Amino acid sequence: MAAHDASRVPAWVDPMLAKADGGRLRSGPEWAYEYKLDGYRAAMRIAPDGTTVLTSRNNIDFTAEFAELAGVLAPGLDGQAAHLDGEVVTYGEDGRIDFELMQERRGRWVRHQSAPKGLAFDDVPVRFLAFDLLRLGDRDLLKEPYDVRRGLLAGLPMPDPYRVSVVRAVTFAELAADRRTPADFLAHAASAGYEGVVAKLRNSGYSPGQRPDSWLKHPLIRTQEVIVCGWRPGQRSFTGTLGGLLLGAHDPGTGDLVYIGDVGTGFSQATRAELQARLEPLERRTHPFAVAPPREDTVRARWVEPRLVGEIVYRQFTRAGRVRHTAWRGLRADKEPGDVLAPRATPLPELPPPPAPTEPAGQRITVQAGNRQLTLSNLDKVLYPADGFTKGEVINYYSRVAAFLLPHLAGRPVTFIRYPNGVDGEKWFEKNVPNGAPAWLHTVRLPSTGSRGSGDTIDYPLLDELPDLVWAANMAALELHVPQWTVTPDATRRAPDRLVFDLDPGPGTTVVDCARVAERLHDVLVADGLTPFAKTSGSKGMQLYCGIETDDPAAPSAYAKDLARRLARETPDTVTAVMAKAQRTGRVFIDWSQNNPAKTTVAPYSLRGRDHPAVSTPVTWAEVRACRHVLHLTFTAEDVLERVAEHGDLLAGLPESAAPLP
């Protein structure tokens, strides 16, 4: 081969992308499974003479930045050219892939580009993890089946596996031979700190630039590329620095740049300063979006040219087009603004099952929930005898629905109803955090609103994260009740942000009658400028919510009471606004008193302590109008998990719809 050919690296290929699997990890002998990595996607292209070029997903040259990877694989190729697809990663002190550390390293590289080329970062070594082989020697492998490409990749010698290695892959058949399942592989990925799992069809070719059904990703966390479109100066302890970022992305249908929310957490002090320095030269007078974002979101905003791409983690993308519960991960120099598309309002993937018990079932086991280890007990204890539904299944339900439930608990003091001996046994309300609660559990001390006299306080639990929810479920806290207001970090109670109507069917009526009353309330509330949302109570009735803006804690009760009395006057034979049981036979009671600041309402997605594991379930107005039988608006835990997989959170738009209380 001529000298000029010997130094010619293989041509760049637009990388194949994985499609989201919709929360269902595929299973069957036609599939293979790989860990989903948390680094920078990169191609390693090697010429016959060993010349190596590293390029990003969008063909940015990474070679100088990751100079220690160049030439590592060449000795094992014996003069053959090669094109590998993979990911460049770094590892933290705990031995897990650490994307934040990679971002810090990236920032240092950008700041030191004026230094000599090939500047090393010996304190933060990188590793290239290959998962596909597109060319070997003169052989183009793009049309070869995954199994063939993977076999050739696995057969390549790895002269320095600390710097270049191959991502582990396993087939369904190999898992089955070990008496394991894809769910077990996912659980191991979670415990090992990987980002998720990618399922790949074993007979599929490599499709450059496409996102086909043959590669399906099942993430354990949701990440999103975003365009930085503005920032807010910090307040209080962050005065003088960057407080948060205003984010955009391109609408997948129209291509318009749209506002998708903000992010205010996940920044170190150094990151805040660096971002502010990067953004100030990009400042512009007006927002860059096709449609102006909500005014309440743009207070103190400083707009910038939409040139910088970053990445966030988030729990939910609402139907209103907003990311919720966000945290910053860092800038992405390997991505272009034009490539950033807004996500779709789809649910989070279900969490993997807990790791295998370390002790026999029925005793104590230790599991990893989020970033905490918890000890669980008596998982085989039956809490719903009619269904044989165990405490383990309760914990599993709350773990899997956590992404949808936690936003409705955020910042709200929680009251438990506990059933330690099952729904047929004794129950009790619990407001104070019980003895033995973990030290990491967030709590808030508030004055008692009970009848014990002034001066008493209650230490309420705040359930903000998955470990908090698992801890509560392990105590058999089946029901979770919250007020219509939230608290600030300094334990100040905010004004109510939700209006609620509790529709309680009296003797001789059912949830079908509640649905008819709900339809009437819907029309009145809409006429008053509010946006009502509906959910079942999980018992016999249903509730309506509206997001509201008010400074008067007493105003929601007064408004709700007037509305309840109005409907009762119009149809006294079917509706009552009086709590007395004697007035409720054959009528639906509109309980307006749930808006009293001292009252709580069962949280959306909470289980109820009834004969069956029924759930307080958000429903559509089409379902309300179509309800003609009790079963039409009755949902169990299993039903709800299927519903959120299909619909996401039907109450997701509640906060964004807030309007002044009439």
Automatic annotation (TrEMBL):
Entry keyword GTP-binding: no
EC number: 6.5.1.1
Alphabetical UniProt keywords: Ligase
Positions with biased composition (Pro residues): 349-358
Region spans: Disordered: 335-359
Gene3D superfamilies named in the record: 3.30.1490.70, DNA ligase/mRNA capping enzyme (3.30.470.30), DNA primase, PRIM domain (3.90.920.10), Nucleic acid-binding proteins (2.40.50.140)
Family listed: In the N-terminal section; belongs to the LigD polymerase family. In the C-terminal section; belongs to the ATP-dependent DNA ligase family.
Protein name listed in UniProt: DNA ligase (ATP)
Record organism: Amycolatopsis iheyensis
Protein's gene: ligD
